[in-house]
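Escalation from tier 1.

The customer reports that the assembly of two entities below gives different structure tokens on two consecutive runs. Tier 1 could not reproduce it. I'm attaching the input and our single run for tier 2 to review.
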Amino acid sequence: MKEYYLKKADENLPELIYEKIRIASEARELFRGDSIVLDLGDYYVGRFSFVLGYKDMYLDAPVRLCIKFCETKEEIDTDFSTYHGALCASWLQEEIINIDMIGEYKMLRRYAARYIKISVVYTPRILTLSDFVFTSETSADVSSVEKLEIDDLELCLIDKVARNTLKNCMHRVFEDGPKRDRRLWASDFRLQALTNHYTFKNSALVRRCLYLFAAADRSEDGFLPAYLYENPNFFSGTWYLRDFALNYVNALSDYYMHIGDSETFLDIYPVVKEMMEAFAAEIDENGILVTEKQGNIFIDWQGELKKTASLQGVYLYTLEKLSSALARLGHEDAELYNSRYESAKTAALRHLYNANENNFANAYDEYQVNIHSVVWMILGGVVSGEGAWEMLLRVMNDEKCPKIVTPYMNHYLVEAMMKLGKEKEAMEHIKSFWGLMVKQGADAFYEVFVPGHPEVSPYLDPMINSMCHAWSCTPSYFIRKQAQGHL
Amino acid sequence: MKEYYLKKADENLPELIYEKIRIASEARELFRGDSIVLDLGDYYVGRFSFVLGYKDMYLDAPVRLCIKFCETKEEIDTDFSTYHGALCASWLQEEIINIDMIGEYKMLRRYAARYIKISVVYTPRILTLSDFVFTSETSADVSSVEKLEIDDLELCLIDKVARNTLKNCMHRVFEDGPKRDRRLWASDFRLQALTNHYTFKNSALVRRCLYLFAAADRSEDGFLPAYLYENPNFFSGTWYLRDFALNYVNALSDYYMHIGDSETFLDIYPVVKEMMEAFAAEIDENGILVTEKQGNIFIDWQGELKKTASLQGVYLYTLEKLSSALARLGHEDAELYNSRYESAKTAALRHLYNANENNFANAYDEYQVNIHSVVWMILGGVVSGEGAWEMLLRVMNDEKCPKIVTPYMNHYLVEAMMKLGKEKEAMEHIKSFWGLMVKQGADAFYEVFVPGHPEVSPYLDPMINSMCHAWSCTPSYFIRKQAQGHL
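Tier 1 run:
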């Protein structure tokens, strides 16, 4: 089947859409040591070209330039040589190029940038640079986006930045970050696809990514990888995060519910069905999903977090969506997952819910109280209504609780609020979290955002953080879904 | 006429000949900080490609490599960051490249190298490098070279290195040096064309260069520039060296004498004729060619050198060759230049020759005794026979005389010896000068070679010296001309 799935993925390879951004600038005269900063006016992903010339005398030696692509204004003056993070420094977008001839020079690699800094390392004489063109590329068709008919200007602005985030992560696949990572991650993909259904409507790209994961090599115990590579070669990831695997299933259910394409759903369903058996095999005697290694659960970049309750919530959430999709199809397996859902919910109430404290401090999680468990227990349908809302507010206001760190987990917090009917509060949270990035000048939403703490990085150096990141694009989903009255 | 000359130059643009040099090597496994050195087995000019792969795990970040192209073995361990020379450091062949994808990577620029050093600056995991291919390019067709039928193995080896030097300087034009400069210089071109007539026989390339200079903008006082650029745009040089301008005339005369192509000669002759009038205008009341600025005479990279006698010699040499070519054509101007030759020779004997000392210590040259004057007075026919030979030996053995520095001036020294019938001594000089480079491991002949003084550089740092240089290729001319019994 792998070959078949890859063939189907190839059939859905999108055409990229190109746009030339001509950077208004006079020809600049520069000598050794000089530098200029170009402003693209917005955040784009693509390729850069310019014209090298000379002022008075033909350049009698090659010209060496240092060209730095900056996602944000702050990055312009960052000294990459001081980088000390955990990820490979090669992600830092800086090139040293030697140009032999005057005329147009096209840089071949793809970059993600709002600003471009060009420094002259060596030149024999005064050179000129002109005709700066950044050719953006994306598989997001901006003309497919419907006008957002709401009066709230702040939400409109947040929607604009969220769409820009998604657009710049849409290429041959839904990329994680166009500067750094660029691979297809299951949980990011699920959120991108969800937002795409409400914005660019590139269903072929979603289909492609669904097929790519279907083609991936599963772990010995039957789980799909959290990520994969597909360019130039297909290569399955080797990290098997349980919540990511479940979110792949959610992406498939979402796709069918939005697009109604039963053929693709049924094409891929056997892979999902097999994997759901692998999940069933990890259910313990209490009915709780327990994976041997805690490192196989993500939930959030929150080192202190205990994750059993959260994972159980993701599992419930997935079972419910899958069962619903199958029910809509009239598929006999709908009941199978529905019955597993009921068992897992009962188990959660019995073994994860702490009736004494009215929270989810449980033995599996060393009785830790945290926001994440409550969010996922709401999304999993274990708790609901005003009681759940009060519980959520209580843990959010509890200073001792491990905090939500990623925009990714913030998405599920908002989704939980929405599920409880707290639309106003959900929109307020979007404003206070994503809206704050916009107020601080974001052109796209960041991978990591902890208000007041720009130094935070899961990679030990914020230089390497991605400033346009897949999992941060979902405000457009919420805002547009609400505007359509679908809630 | 400029347009016409450029059109003719274009018509003679050579096809480049490519050869793939596959560097025998196992796939190399490398991590950050590792480096490898590849040996091409000989000196080549061309483009480099290789295949990037991974050992166990897909590379999840770009790979940053530093790739250094070395003309010589010594250059491998040279630290370019310590460069302090006068020419632009961008000539130093070192690239920092970022590679996003596994597979074949083709470097686009052209390099001149015997060795290639690859260092891994950043990689996320162990990478592999394999399938190293250097695709050499030249407009020299090695199959056109006749077998050299001589028994002297040392001369055969010198001829081999000299041919390699010329071959690697032959591209769209006769380049000065394939690493550094790459432009068309008149005096270098003249020596290259001369050697080409006896080796690769690419007369179209000679024709192209003759037309290119014919198209050049002359100085206000009527002189052709010493150099020009032609790629991507035609651009006339702005340095008007008198001896270089005369050597352009010599290149045209040589071309006609070797190829017999009167059409091209007569096409270009009007340019030469006009310029010879400019020379005539610089003749002073004594009949000596005197240019206002001494900086407009090259002769040799010898800062102490006084150059009037030498330049007069170049002028005489040029008049004689031009007159001979015109005479062979039956052109009426033959007599004009012959008569100027006789006047200039008489003037040299009267005002430059020092009868008391039997040398060329003269008032114009502040009574400096130097080898260069003697060489050029021999080549100009002012002195000849055993008397001239003794004079030459005397100045060569005079410790106080400014020494010959460049292979270029060494060429004319050998030519002077040949003219005096001292073939054996000339060949000995070739062995002691060029042969010493071969003994020291040269794959091509250097721009600068002062035995025992590798630190010598006209640019204040030997790092920037060209180790394969146009004007050093002429041993093949002498050796093959002698082997053909043409002397």
